[in-house]
Each structure stands twice: as structure tokens, then as C-alpha cells.
Design a protein that fits this description.
The complex is a heterodimer of chains A (164) and B (156). With 164 residues, chain A is mostly beta strands. Chain A has a single domain, classed as Immunoglobulin-like. Helices cover 12% and strands 41% of the residues of chain A. In chain A, strands 2, 3, 4, 6, 7, 8 and 9 form a seven-stranded antiparallel beta sheet that branches. Chain B contains one helix and 13 strands, in the order αβββββββββββββ. About 10% of the residues of chain B have low confidence. The chains are: A mainly beta (164), B mainly beta (156). The interface between A and B is large, with 34 and 66 residues. β1 of chain A pairs antiparallel with β13 of chain B, so a sheet runs across the interface.
């Protein structure tokens, strides 16, 4: 009986010892990514209709570099982006409103608008940033003051969203 | 006499059990072959690398005794970039694959977040492939990001 106990102990040790021989090994690899330049958008110039007279529509075309609204975009060079807009239907002055319609846009890879491409802001557009990672966007529209439009300063906000 | 007989049976049983395990003497090696490469990533745009992507998926080769092995990953939750900036990295339930032929086209998918039991073939060689998704924020800081994945293989 005592002999069995000893042998059992030997057996347990042998099994345990064998189990401890189980092999394990490891290796590592890396995950790498190169994040490109984030997009930055600046509302550089407001869309300015100037003086408007009751009953007289006034249009600012997108190619009017002085009065058209302008957004300046920077980001990763030579990379396509998607432009989308939130466009007001009216300008407001206190409780008074004035319709703003017929939005038009131009985007160009230079600040002078040369070679610019027209688009409908309501439909958005997908231009590319230039080799320096820049893009310029101009927005024009038409205001339609009523014949009895209340005098005052009318404003509204145009929001452009740019994503890769 | 009866006691001695029983004792020897115990010894024989021990030897029989131990013999197959000792036959697993072939050394186990685990080698990182290729990292997971996301390449150029744009802020706000998730980038997915599939485990079946021959150029960008991660690959780790295993050599060892034929039979069962346990695969266990240690996975990062983010890659570290310039100035300690972090970019989330996600591993899906099917983002790891085991190939007993080492061919990227013949993988058995598994969840790298869970231990996985695989079988090394007769030649003792196999490969593990890994994919992942990088999730840059819209204002993710530009620059190079890295993280480390560790695979531990245990012979069962």
C-alpha cells in the first residue's frame, strides 16, 4: 500500500512535469497609419448685397469676387473633398424677412477664381484641393425684396460643410 | 504481489501518457512577417484593412509540432501618433484568420479578441492573418501612428 502511494506520487509528478513542458511562444507585429492633414474651413468673406430697394431684385453672382461669399479651405494636397451647404430661404431683420433664392457657386484651386467651376450649392459638389492643399469657394444668390419691404439690415447664415 | 502489479500498471500508464507529449519536442517558433498597414488615412474617414488583403493585412507565421495550439492576441485599442495623439483601432469578430496552408486565400476566420484553438498540420507550419479598422476623428492630428499586436501561441 505504501508502495502504491509512492508510485502515485511519482506518477503525479511525472504528469505535472510533462504538462509544464507545454511550449508557448509569441511574436509581435505593428499596425501603422499615416494620418493626412485635417480639413480647415474659414468663412473668409460674407455674401454682400449692399443696398437693396423694395420691389427690386438684386443678384450677386458667384464670380463677383468682391461681393460673393467666399470660403477658404485647406487640407491634404490633391485630395478630393465633398462640399455641402445649409442655405437660408430668407434673410431676417428682427421679425421681418426677405426671400433669398437662386444660389450659385464656383470653386477654384486659386484665390482669383481663374478656371473656376460652377455648381449648385443646393446639390453640393466634389472638387479636389490643389497641390498645396487649398481650395476656394464662392457663393452668390438673389434677394427679392417686396415692394413694401421694411427698411433695415437683413442677415442670414450660409453654412458649408467639407469632408474628405 | 498484488500491490506490485498495481504499482507497475500505474507506472506503465504514466509512461504511455507522457510519451505522446514528449514527442512534441519540435520547437515552437512564432514570427511576425508583416504588420497591418493602413497607409494614408484621412481625418474622419475610417480605413478598413481586410485579413485577406495580401499587401496590408498583418501576418504571423507559426512553426511547431503538429497538433493543437492555442492562439491568443494582445490587441491595442488605439494607435499612438505625434505628441501622444491617439487614433482608435478596432478589431472585428472576423478580423483574424488561421491558415494551415499558409495561403492567405484559405483562412478560417476567428475573433482575435478571443482565444482560438487551431491545429498545426503535419509539416507544423501555419500562418495567422489579421485585419483591422482605423477610426480617425475628423480633427485627427496629422502624422504617423503605430501600435503593437502580440500573438501568443501555446502548444496544447
Amino acid at each position: 500500500m505504501r508502495s502504491i502511494t509512492k508510485l502515485s506520487l511519482v506518477a503525479v509528478l511525472a504528469l505535472t512535469g510533462t504538462a509544464l513542458q507545454a511550449q508557448a511562444n509569441n511574436a509581435s507585429i505593428t499596425a501603422t497609419a499615416s494620418v493626412q492633414t485635417p480639413i480647415n474651413v474659414v468663412g473668409a468673406q460674407p455674401l454682400n448685397f449692399g443696398n437693396v430697394f423694395p420691389g427690386v431684385n438684386k443678384t450677386v453672382v458667384a464670380t463677383d469676387l468682391t461681393n460673393a461669399g467666399r470660403f477658404d479651405i485647406t487640407g491634404q494636397a490633391s485630395t478630393p473633398v465633398t462640399l455641402s451647404f445649409t442655405l437660408p430661404a430668407t434673410l431676417g431683420s428682427g421679425s421681418n424677412t426677405m426671400p433669398i433664392v437662386s444660389y450659385a457657386g464656383v470653386h477654384a484651386q486659386n484665390s482669383t477664381g481663374i478656371g473656376g467651376i460652377g455648381f449648385l450649392p443646393s446639390a453640393g459638389s466634389s472638387p479636389s484641393l490643389n497641390a498645396s492643399g487649398q481650395l476656394w469657394v464662392w457663393v452668390g444668390a438673389q434677394v427679392q425684396p417686396a415692394t413694401n419691404q421694411v427698411a433695415g439690415v437683413y442677415t442670414g447664415s450660409i453654412t458649408m460643410t467639407v469632408v474628405y | 504481489m498484488q500491490t506490485m502489479k498495481r504499482s507497475w500498471w500505474v507506472v506503465i500508464a504514466v509512461l504511455l501518457l507522457a510519451a505522446p507529449l514528449r514527442a512534441q519536442g519540435k520547437p515552437l517558433t512564432v514570427t511576425g512577417i508583416r504588420g497591418v498597414t493602413f497607409g494614408a488615412v484621412l481625418p474622419g474617414v475610417p480605413r478598413v484593412v481586410l485579413r485577406s488583403d495580401p499587401a496590408n493585412s498583418g501576418q504571423i507565421d507559426i512553426r511547431g509540432p503538429k497538433g493543437l495550439v492555442l492562439l491568443t492576441f494582445v490587441l491595442p485599442v488605439a494607435m499612438t501618433g505625434p505628441g501622444g495623439a491617439l487614433m482608435p483601432i478596432r478589431f472585428g469578430a472576423g478580423d483574424a484568420g488561421f491558415s494551415a496552408t499558409q495561403a492567405i486565400g484559405s483562412q478560417v476566420g476567428f475573433d482575435p479578441k478571443q482565444p482560438f484553438t487551431a491545429t498545426l498540420p503535419n509539416n507544423g507550419r501555419a500562418s495567422v492573418f489579421v485585419g483591422a479598422t482605423a477610426n480617425p476623428t475628423t480633427n485627427q492630428r496629422a502624422g504617423a501612428y503605430t501600435a503593437t499586436l502580440i500573438l501568443t501561441v501555446t502548444v496544447l
